[in-house]
Amino acid sequence: MATQIFVNLPVKDLPRSVAFFTRLGFTFNPRFTDHNATCMIVGENIFVMLLVESFFKTFTKKALCDATRSTEVLVCLSCESRAQVDERVAQALAAGGAAPNEAKDHGFMYQHGFEDLDGHLWELIYMEPTADSPA
Known about the structure:
By secondary structure, this protein is an alpha/beta fold. It has one domain: 2,3-Dihydroxybiphenyl 1,2-Dioxygenase, domain 1. The chain is built from three helices and eight strands, in the order βαβββαβαβββ. The strands form two sheets. The chain has a four-stranded mixed beta sheet. β6 and β7 (109-115) form a beta hairpin. The chain starts with a strand and ends in an 8-residue tail after the last strand. The model has no long low-confidence stretch (mean pLDDT 94).
């Protein structure tokens, strides 16, 4: 079995977050969805668990970070083209997100990103097929 990754993020309003990410084209696994959480499908083995803050707190004794004021994680997703990077950022902005930075063109890599409704940062990158892969 391939290793799967589940990124867990606290959210203030689960239906609002589901609506936001649905507008970006993501789907959700109903088997792992209830009033406390949902499982957003990112890829074959990549998932994001959006957890209502009170439920998220049951998994840690640490205080939760206010992602609108501090950064606790930066989630980076690859895209198939520069155009797809720009399209996804535009979708996020249209759905109520923000673009905290301008797009950056590094030649071999193009990046841009958005901040979701809870302040979590999402970087989107396109790497030229000839670019060296990370070791």
